[in-house]
Amino acid sequence: MKELVVYCAIILPDGFTILILVKLFKDGGKEAKKKDRSTSPVKCFFVRFESNAAIDDGKEYVLSGKTVQEARSVFMHVHTLPSMAKYMARFSLILSKTMKLEDDLSNLNFMVEGDIPCKDKDKKPVYKDGKLCIHSDGTGYISEDLALKCPKDVFKGSIMNGANVEIGPIGALLGESPDTMQADSYRRVPPLLIQIRFFYKGYAVKGTLLVNKKLPPRTIQVRDSMVKVEPDLNLSNICTRNSLEVVTTSNQPKRTSLSKNLIMLLSYGGVPDNFFMDLLKNALEESQGAFSNKRTALRVALNRGGLDELLAAKMILSGIPLDESYLQYRMSIMLNEDRKGLLSGKLPITDSYHLMGTVDPSGVLESDEVCIILDNGQISGKVLVYRHPGVHFGDIHILTARYVKELDEYVGHAKYAIFFPSNGPRSLADEMAGGDFDGDMFFVSKNPQLLDYFKVSEPWTENCTTPEGPSRRPSEFSDEELESELFESFLKTRFQPSYAMGMAADNWSAIMDRFLTVEDSNSSEKTLMKENLKKLIDLYYEALDASKTGKKVIVPEELRVAVFPHYMEQENSFKSTSILGKIYDHVKAYQEEVSRKEVQKLPCFNVEVSEECRSKWTVLYEQYRKDMTYVLNSSNKEKNDAAANALYDVYKKVLYGGAELVERQRPMNQISEEALAIYNICYEYAIKKDDVGKCGFAWKVAGSALLNLHVLGLGEKTLSCAPSVLKELFS
Fold it and tell me: Tell me, what does this protein do in biology (predicted)?
């Protein structure tokens, strides 16, 4: 495991120096972080202002001679914001995972327009708490010529199936050049919607841009709601770094699944348990196809290739039969990983999509209508629409999708989005968990059964319970005071993080689970539960925005439960009989029913080798087992995996004379014979122990040689192919 040690000295205003030793290493990913309450989402980035290194030879750096405040102004005039919470939230936009759009912005036609107001039945603007309610929150326009410069299929700053990620303007400052995929196939039709971070002459803009064929060339038109930082007109001595950054584009929807929250809300709305159980059974039956269908098996092996460095995929592509003992063992492990999603309610569903949302530029749609553009153009009919992570009973809407001819004049042949109306007293996105159009994705389903069963509830209305704390404007601090305030905020966030959002969500789940199983709808218990759910919903939505508002959200004791449904896998639990409990139990039982695979050798590898060769690897295999027992002495899975891989490398070197078969330093005939010896020794030991996992040494050490032998035995040659291409073909 690679480890980087960084020493960082921080000098405080009172003269004290803090020396921080930072160790950076590959962690266990999201699952490990969820279990470790001491972890924090806070990241440290080190930015160079000056350099005395000989390699730089005194060259002036872009931040040379600037104060920290002046350096921040290179990106945006963040000091103009009204609070410290917004200061930190908005400046972090430069760290978004983005792809820089390579274009000279010096002759850009940049416009800031007003938002589309919500209007009541008398056509008067609607206000809430003195603030104008709007339909166009977070979305603007981009001219077609500029949109064509943007690659399609961008997700979180990289082109799906192969592009590199650039950390926005930080990457640009460091001189990195993004892979923008100039291929013509990515240029013919522009992305319909582009989620962006835009830094321009002190502005910081966040939101989505809809391609608009009506705009003049080289035009970007943003709404007031998209402008997160405005320029300081008095600041003229700082040269800003203008940069248009692409986060995500509106992409072709992949296979869509339900979620835990959505299942609970659908269940509350009248969708019966057997509907979800049928979806689950279909998913489990389909997953079993990986043991008999090569296409299904390869898709699973590619998607879960990180578990075994694509070994299972290589075996399948080399013609190893799907009933081979070790291959079936690896497929079982991968399928169990896939089924973990099923445990938490991620049930695949047909006729459903995740689409990026925006507002109808034509103004044609009525308040209960949407326009949806998919592969074959616009669709019509009733649709169910939901925005994650909605937890309110009314966060699911039933709307009418209709054809809007006028849209063609704006977007042409661009695809994949849902357009919401610009008419009515309230934005439909806001009705769904307080959503907007700055990149929010919406679950859209035209599944006929779902539409037939579900009955809508009144939409959520905001009910603030947490007051905003007092906060000085950043401009009111001196430079030294501002740095001290920011550092103090960093320490609080890192070492005293708020768990209000997770706590509200967990308690909502626990109470909602019980709420769904109480049969007497008029009982006082159910009435109390519904009131507590509403309070938790308000707290949860406040906690979602707490980093921007600066609110200190607290979940009171009376809203906290003592026990949780067993499927949440917490220490204090009860046996849930809700639909989520049934799904969890069914998947668990299904996994336990999978029979153990008998270990058998492939006939093509079950051959005699010389006694000398067999004796050599019998001794080495015994030594390996001793070594592996020694290295697997840590409770940390990542450390154990790294140690095991290092041990495999030792024995690869013995077999190949190099790190891999392609780097071999030994004759191929010797390598082939010894690979067969390893295979037979391992499999015989696995048969003796009745443990197919013991076959792993053969494939992890001699796998390349064994696959080469198998392909030669078929009378064929191997074909090189990038894993990303295979994933694209079989996704």
Answer: Probably involved in the RNA silencing pathway and required for the generation of small interfering RNAs (siRNAs).
